[in-house]
Amino acid sequence: MTAPGVPRLVTRRQVVIGLLGVGALPRAVRAQPSSAIPVIGLLSARSQVETAHLLAAYRKGLSESGHVEGNNVLIEYRWAEGRFDRLPDLAADLVRRKVAVISTVGGSPPAVAAKAATSTIPIVFLSGGDLVKLGLVTSLSRPVGNVTGVSQFATLLAPKRLELLRDVKPSAGLVAILLNPKNPNFGFEQTQVLEAARVLSLKLNFVKASTVTELDQGLESLATTRVDGLVVNADAFLDDRRAHITAFVARQGIPAIYPWRDYAAAGGLISYGADVADTYRQAGVYAGRILKGARPADLPVMQPSKFQLVVNLKTARTLGISVPRSVLARADELIQ
After folding, report:
1. How is 35-95 classified by DSSP, letter by letter?
2. Bridge partners (DSSP) listed for residue 229
3. Is the dihedral of CA 250, 129, 68, 88 positive or negative?
4. What is the dihedral of CA 141, 142, 145, 146, to 10 degrees?
5. Is the predicted pLDDT of residue 111 greater than 70, yes or no?
6. Which domain covers residue 78, as residue numbers?
7. CATH number of the domain where residue 252 is located
8. Is the Cβ–Cβ distance between 123 and 297 less than 8 Å?
9. pLDDT tens figures, 86-107
10. Model pTM?
11. One domain for residues 136 and 281
12. Helix (H), strand (E), coil (C) string for 262-287
């Protein structure tokens, strides 16, 4: 079953992501912007290292609108490293620096923090939550005020991930859902997967983690509860710890599905979500258009144009799982 409003799985495609380093510019150049060159404040809930490969896509989007970092635009980076409590101060700092545009990436929390910090500086968000319920925009097609951006559909895809996990393991009865209770999307995600589980006749065990200690305790609980599978929700805190999560789950022999390709590349069994690199590119395009004079209110919220279903066949063999042909046929990438 496909949940209402959730896009269907797309056909196989090849996705090529350019990799560029984060610190391409000398620190002195970044720290001393000329008043003649506009400055973008990039506020991320993630860490610099974890986001390096995605910034290449963001810069590509900027270049599509004629902007090159270090040439005719500068970027001030602020990294919360999965600590949502730091976001308000980081957003306020960018407002004090009077940047021309604030770009928020790494989920809904930085977008919410930026909107609370300013009603005048244009904001371009990259978010996977329910944007209207979060108060970021009043309408996807006609945003009002100083905020617009790109939706990643991360929350809306949670039911589809649960369905895919059931497809991979039809005998599953009890499935764990790993999520962060401090994420603004927490309540909405919980409601979405509960309804999907009812339709699929699955029982759910919610594992909540917003700290390293809670994450370790939550993962340990998976072994004692003997769950048949795991769905990991999209969240900056969890994403920064994907190597730890995928390694633990593999040791326990638990089939799991994740929100982004990076999890599958790190050893996760299967992932389904928007092409993250392409959404970063779209965010860069919008930031560049605003630098050229466009108003956020005139730019409808963009929706992702690419979705990726990725299956790690090596992990499947390790777990002793035979992925159904129906799932393999829909996969955009098979990791050998």
Report:
1. TTS-EEEEEESS-HHHHHHHHHHHHHHHHHTT--BTTTBEEEEEE-TT-GGGHHHHHHHHH
2. 175
3. negative
4. 30
5. yes
6. 27-153+276-306
7. 3.40.50.2300
8. no
9. 999 999 999 999 999 999 998 8
10. 0.79
11. yes
12. HHHHCCCCEEEEECHHHHHHHHHHHH
